[in-house]
Design a protein that fits this description.
The complex is a heterodimer of chains A (299) and B (287). With 299 residues, chain A is mainly α. Chain A has one domain: MetI-like (MetI-like fold), CATH 1.10.3720.10. Helix content of chain A is 73%, strand content 1%. Chain A contains eleven helices and two strands; from the N terminus they run ααββααααααααα. In chain A, a hairpin with a 4-residue loop joins strand 1 and strand 2. In chain A, helix 5 packs across helix 6. Chain B is mainly α and 287 residues long. Chain B folds into two domains: 43 residues; 237 residues, MetI-like fold (Orthogonal Bundle). Chain B contains eleven helices and two strands, in the order H-H-E-E-H-H-H-H-H-H-H-H-H. A two-stranded antiparallel sheet of chain B has the order 1-2. The termini of chain B are far apart. Classes of the chains: A mainly alpha (299), B mainly alpha (287). Chains A and B meet through helix 2, helix 3, helix 4, helix 5 and helix 6 of A and helix 1, helix 3, helix 4, helix 5 and helix 6 of B.
């Protein structure tokens, strides 16, 4: 009976697969969203690109005179990012080494959870801490009138990217197989030699990925930087003076987008800045994904 | 020989010292951050603070409508993102034959993750507030937050789907289920936890976002419960922003700390739930 019924059973009629269509539509919509965002930014940057004599690639920003130089905030962004990097990367790397070489899985888990909690503190709260403490401390330390300077923003940003960098670097270090360490140690190598000779070469691609991702975060961070950097539209003088007030692209956007009229050249210049920012952060993130996934494929 | 050994020993000591020192610095930063938020916040926080509306530009009173606005906005964002993220993740898992479309989609999600939060705000301002002429609207804020949550929720759902043992699919297929039936009966129920985890992580990030919503969805004072989709609300992050800018006023600063602690606790609740869910399901998975 079974054989007969199986033979007689008709294949299920092919009807239009609603679920499949739905999933395809969702996937396409996700792509459309990204394209619309990028296109919107690009189209809205056109007015400033097409209007001549606005000093777009100069250092002078003055909407009343029609000067929209993006160099000062661009430089500020890079400068603040560099300070944050100098603070966060060595501390993050050394701490990651400590955690990954302790080999107490319980301690690792606890630290990882805490790091996740830290990464979850909203940036506006970091900003408040910066305004309430860091600001004042930096001003006292360097005997300045106001602590709203590039250095403060750099330190705060360094603290903010530390959890991201630390946790990803630690992942990269822990991914190096344990027996490599054991072999190296049994050859009589000291711990720093094991790290330099064995672990770092294996993990460096992953660490580079972590670094790039952290850089992307640092460039895109808005609220905390905006509250402590002082918002001064000028290049610092001398150029690498961390004790002067400054401006980053993000702080500029945060301060001025609400005040500029939609459709004006001023607004368009801000959108153009944001477009540059997005291009850089997307490039950094895709590059870091490339590194991070290559690391997994290797191990 | 002896000298060389000494130098190696010295480097080793330095290395160990530097690592310990870094750990101590990190722990110090951690204690300082959490300590300042809790100690400053706890003195401002009370039930009364949570349930009274703010008055005289946030300097006195509580944060009731800010709390309400924040929760409303992120919960609606979660509802908006859920169907899209599920569909996208399912597509990636069940219907993707390594097509070009899937590759473009992956890169799009990475790009969404990379876009700085302030840019989302500018995009919302251009596209919704001005081109679609919605005006300042909490619902637009929800849409923007939903877009920001999309990569997180999609990737978390997708990872849970990819982790379903292959044999489940094979068994279901051997029983004669069609692909749609497999999706509905196997993939979705088995990856439900990943979807929820992703949503919770997305919520915990979205509730603290300031830059994307400050141009498009919020007003600082005089806002109560919105009567329609196109009205502004007040939220905790934008409230803290306003108060932080009056940081010389101790009363404003006090309220800012209270609002900050509330915000951090909310974010920690969402991510704590996600961690709990993940660890519980991980331990089940090992059996």
């Amino acid at each position: 009976m079974n054989t007969v019924s199986l033979l007689n059973a008709k294949p299920a009629p092919r009807r239009r697969d609603a679920t499949k269509a739905y999933c395809q539509a969702s996937a396409v919509l996700s792509i459309v969203i990204v394209s619309v965002i990028l296109l919107t930014l690009l189209i809205q940057s056109l007015p400033v690109l097409l209007s001549g004599d606005n000093g777009l690639f100069g250092a002078r920003w003055n909407p009343d005179e029609g000067k929209f130089g993006i160099i000062a905030p661009l430089f500020g962004s890079v400068f603040v990012m560099l300070i944050a990097t100098i603070i966060a990367f060595p501390i993050g790397l050394l701490t990651a080494i400590y955690i990954s070489e302790t080999r107490s899985s319980k301690l690792r888990r606890v630290i990882k959870s805490i790091l996740e909690l830290l990464a979850g503190i909203p940036s506006i709260v970091y900003g408040l801490i910066g305004v309430a403490y860091l600001n004042v401390w930096v001003a006292d330390l360097f005997d300045l009138q106001s602590g709203r300077i590039i250095l403060t923003a750099g330190i705060l940003l360094g603290i903010m990217i530390l959890p991201t960098f630390l946790t990803l670097t630690e992942d990269a270090l822990s991914a190096v197989p344990q027996r490599y360490r054991e072999n190296a140690k049994s050859l009589g190598m000291y711990r720093h030699e094991v790290f330099k000779g064995i672990i770092f070469p294996q993990a460096k691609v992953g660490i580079a990925g972590a670094g790039l991702l952290a850089l992307g975060r640092a460039l895109g961070e808005t609220m905390a930087v905006m509250l402590v950097i002082g918002s001064l539209d000028r290049l610092p003088s001398p150029l690498f003076n961390p004790l002067s007030s400054g401006q980053t692209i993000t702080s500029k956007l945060g301060r001025e987008v609400g005040e500029s009229a939609f459709g004006s050249v001023h607004f368009s210049a801000l959108v153009f800045m944001s477009f540059i920012l997005v291009s850089i952060t997307i490039a950094l993130t895709i590059l870091s994904h490339y590194f991070l996934t290559r690391k997994q494929a290797d191990v | 020989m002896f000298k060389a050994r000494n130098r190696r020993h010295f480097s080793e000591q330095c290395f160990a010292l530097a690592a310990r020192l870094s750990l101590i610095i990190c722990a110090g930063i951690l204690l300082f951050l959490l300590g300042s938020i809790f100690i400053q916040g706890i003195s401002a926080l009370s039930l009364e603070f949570l349930f009274t509306p703010s008055s005289s530009f946030g300097k006195s009173g509580g944060i009731f409508y800010q709390l309400f606005g924040s929760l409303l906005m992120v919960l609606v964002a979660a509802l908006l993102v859920l169907p899209l993220a599920l569909g996208t993740a399912l597509f990636r898992n069940s219907y993707n034959n390594n097509t070009g479309l899937a590759h473009v989609m992956d890169q799009s999600l990475y790009a969404l993750n990379a876009i700085p939060s302030v840019t989302y705000g500018i995009f919302g301002l251009i596209f919704f507030v001005n081109l679609l002429n919605t005006g300042i609207s909490w619902f637009v804020g929800s849409i923007i937050l939903a877009i920001m949550m999309l990569p997180t929720v999609t990737l978390s759902s997708y990872q849970a789907m990819a982790a379903i043992p292959k044999i489940y699919h094979e068994n279901a297929a051997a029983l004669g289920l069609t692909r749609t039936q497999i999706v509905r009966r196997v993939t979705l129920p088995q990856s439900f936890h990943g979807v929820v985890t992703g949503l919770l992580i997305g919520l915990s990030r979205a509730i603290g976002e300031t830059a994307p919503i400050m141009f498009i969805a919020t007003a600082f004072s005089g806002v109560t419960v919105p009567q329609s989709l196109v009205e502004p609300v007040s939220t905790l992050p934008t409230h803290i922003l306003e108060l932080a800018q009056q940081s010389t006023d101790p009363q404003a600063l006090q309220n800012a700390w209270g609002a900050s602690l509330t915000l951090v606790l909310l974010a920690a609740t969402f991510s704590g739930l996600a961690l709990f869910l993940r660890s519980r399901l991980n331990s089940e998975g090992h059996q």
